[in-house]
Amino acid sequence: MPDHVSHETVRGGDVADGMQDDAAARATAHDGMTDGGMAMSGESAGSTVASAPVTDELDGSPLLADVLGDALPKLEIFHDKLMREGEPRGLIGPRDVAIVWERHILNSAAVVPFIRETTRNERYKTVADIGSGGGFPGLVAAACLPDHRFTLIEPMERRVEWLDECVREMGLKNVEVVRARSEEIIARIRKRDGLYPFAVATCRAVAPMTKLSGWTLPLLKSHGRLVALKGRSAQAEIDKAAKEIAKRGGVRPRVVEAEVGPGLEPTHVVLVDKR
User: Fold this and answer.
1) CA–CA distance from 223 to each of 170, 217, 246 (Å)?
2) What is the mean pLDDT of residues 63-77?
3) Distances (CA, A) of 269 to 191, 224, 230, 232
4) CA–CA separation, 185 and 181 (whole Å)
């Protein structure tokens, strides 16, 4: 991964704007599901016309190795699984299938330089990914940062099953998947119930900052950082949530641009430091 911290917007708008949140995208994908778990075509459930296999626009591009480096083999496994199962299992929308690399994997990898910058001098490089869903950005960041410990926090059982499958198939040794809500993890940290505050909290399109600050900032140690992938409304969200951010110990909330890849639209990242 490149160390530079700079630019996001993806194909006509930010991922967060296009999806609103991962849950909405997954719900959309489920609208056409059969009982057998396969997506129905827009024409007819009984249609015998075979559709052409969809390929990703960035398949085979040298850009992938340039951006993802040593993480590429593991992320190719993740990409292949998303292409096969992502839409039928309601993890990505039907319009995302041809742009999985850009919209989901490269977009998620944009958080990596910010995580690396935050943990540079930390002995314990721990990351909590909130509302991990399909694995964005948690699984992607974990593949890119094998020297960090990731805890993927997801309350829904079917998504936890997906995450566990991905961790196993990708061979990720630095990831723990926890079925819980963020509030439950916060309570355990406060009780010192086998958990300690994290150096970094990440998320993508989970909730507006008015809610997100309460779900993430209490997870962080002093001088930790929230790294949240957001859409074009990021600054407005920060302005609206200013009091809540401060109440939770957050300081210096700001929006920065993060590079997705050469020639691709940049994305917006919200950074909030913990006092």
Assistant:
1) 31, 11, 14
2) 98
3) 31, 16, 6, 10
4) 7
Distance CA 199, CA 219 (A): 9
Q: Answer yes or no: are the C-beta atoms of 129 and 141 closer than 8 Å.
A: yes
92-149 pLDDT, tens digit each: 999 999 999 999 999 999 999 999 999 999 999 999 999 999 999 999 999 999 999 9
pTM of the model: 0.83
**94 touches 41 (CB < 8 A):** no
Whether residue 136 contacts residue 107, with contact meaning beta carbons closer than 8 Å, is answered with yes
- Those residues whose C-beta lies under 8 Å from the C-beta of residue 48, and which sit 6 or more positions away, are none
Label the pairing between strands 149-154 and 175-179. Answer: parallel
Tokens of 49: 């016309």
pLDDT at residue 230 above 80? Answer: yes
CA-to-CA separations, 152 to 28, 225, 253, in angstroms, rounded: 23, 16, 23
Q: What is the pLDDT of residue 54?
A: 86
Give me the residue label for tokens 């909290």: 201
